[in-house]
Amino acid sequence: LGFFPGVPIFLFISGFLISKSSANSFSWKDYAVKRLGRIEPALIASVMFALLLTWLSGYFSQNSNVSFVDLLILILAKI
User: Fold this and answer.
1) pTM of this prediction?
2) What is the DSSP string of 20-72?
3) Which of 25, 28, 40, 41 has the most C-beta neighbours closer than 10 Å?
4) What number of other Cβ atoms are within 10 A of residue 31's Cβ?
5) How far apart are CA 17 and CA 63, in angstroms?
6) Per-residue model confidence as pLDDT tens digits over 7-56
7) Cα separation of 61 and 25, whole Å?
8) For the chain, how far is it from start to end, CA to CA, in angstroms?
9) Exposed (0-12), middle (13-18) or buried (19+): which is 74, by Cβ within 10 Å?
């Protein structure tokens, strides 16, 4: 705790916000839909940005053995 005080503080605040969000939802389904609506767009954007940077770096042209199926599996695993 002495070296990284930000980590416990982040986890405490995160847990507080998640529990408050859960308490304000009508049901678990409502909570899950709200949570996915908040998290999924940023996750998809970050995966697409990472793929763009990988493509711009020339990785795909240097490694021609990367198939479309492999790339699709990678994207689905990240999302």
Assistant:
1) 0.60
2) HHHHTSSSHHHHHHHHHHHHHHHHHHHHHHHHHHHHHTTHHHH-TT--HHHHH
3) 25
4) 16
5) 43
6) 888 889 989 888 888 888 888 888 888 888 888 899 889 988 988 998 89
7) 48
8) 32
9) middle
